[in-house]
Amino acid sequence: xxxxxxxxxxxxxxxxxxxxxxxxxxxxxxxxxxxxxxxxxxxxxxxxxxxxxxxxxxxxxxxxxxxxxxxxxxxxxxxxxxxxxxxxxxxxxxxxxxxxxxxxxxxxxxxxxxxxxxxxxxxxxxxxxxxxxxxxxxxxxxxxxxxxxxxxxxxxxxxxxxxxxxxxxxxxxxxxxxxxxxxxxxxxxxxxxxxxxxxxxxxxxxxxxxxxxxxxxxxxxxxxxxxxxxxxxxxxxxxxxxxxxxxxxxxxxxxxxxxxxxxxxxxxxxxxxxxxxxxxxxxxxxxxxxxxxxxxxxxxxxxxxxxxxxxxxxxxxxxxxxxxxxxxxxxxxxxxxxxxxxxxxxxxxxxxxxxxxxxxxxxxxxxxxxxxxxxxxxxxxxxxxxxxxxxxxxxxxxxxxxxxxxxxxxxxxxxxxxxxxxxxxxxxxxxxxxxxxxxxxxxxxxxxxxxxxxxxxxxxxxxxxxxxxxxxxxxxxxxxxxxxxxxxxxxxxxxxxxxxxxxxxxxxxx
Length: 510
What we know:
By secondary structure, the chain is α/β, with parallel strands linked by helices. It has two domains: 3-170, Ribosomal Protein S5, domain 2; 186-428, Rossmann fold. Helices cover 38% and strands 17% of the residues. The protein has 23 helices and 18 strands. Helix 2 (45-55) packs across helix 3 (82-92) and helix 21 packs across helix 22. It is elongated, with a radius of gyration of 28 Å. The model has no long low-confidence stretch (mean pLDDT 89).
């Protein structure tokens, strides 16, 4: 009977905190105690570990077992400590012997009663943060191998059951490693194609500009005008994610437990479309032990809010911080956690409650007061944070009956990638890499207008009564339009088109 120490980890936010599992087995009345701020799932590990050790063929010690999860001031949660606790008990009783190499490894995994290893959440953050360790070795369940193997400089050992882990620790077994397929074909990245959309050429142009500059966009139109159809095709024209972006997204999905078994890197930009009945906690993230919400799951992708005025006012207002800062900060008594939330907001709404204000085929039954009340469900400050507002009228019968003749997403994405490459070169060394994220100083530096453009914007500001934030948004959109035209400066045509994308300022807002 003796003391054993095994390394493990717990995930707080999107970061791993490495835990030392200390197991002491001594003589005395039989007992099994776990200390170190364990939650209910960790406390229940006692029964899983006991049954797994016996059903694997090892003898469970009869005596006093004390498990300490250090440091003791960090809350431990989840079933990932099953495996390190079992390994610690077997080492402490002399059933297995840690080799020098495996003594520095990190162990995570849930045990079933027959000793099999079940996958756990948070393996990707553990692997990423393990890269700086002296001995970057990680033992994981077989179904977690693919996500952990995507991290360079970390040696990952996948095991199917406790028996394989014991053989690995003894140095008598080297587990096989499944082949990880990270290839992504063009069709899987594009998904639904813009060439399938009939009509709405002006809206397609606006979508291309929004994607090229990372701008938030709001579509206003009657039911059936194609708002949702266009929104679902935006991820297909966004630039492919690089390795760093893909790892960030996969880390978030790993923490949330949304990675499928044997899945590896997420290469496709996410598209999240929560229902308008969603709570602010589900949208932003939170809970007793805060988990990422929809805005974080849309990181490096698209967050689509359909029927925008139908969302609760307090739910929409919590979007301000992530739209401005690209992060979400959740405060609890135990501490503060931040999640990345760098997404492109795409919203859709009807022009009025009945949906037919301004429609040429059906009459609107709403009064001016009802229209104003409906539109005012969206606050001015939130509206100012949406760069582009576009109208989408109902398509004609001729367009509806005809064949789609639009450009495919692949062609549009080539132009978007070209514009993004110009922005990355322009903003090299800065925290932002697209026009939509420019600060006020950068707007003054990179959005120089000619005389005609300056005069045009001045008249628009006076006529429409635009806010200072709307002024900056127009310049950012104009900068993107100029990038698509490969122009260094902003011309009057760029300013004029950018002003046209402030529909609510020009027509609706009362």
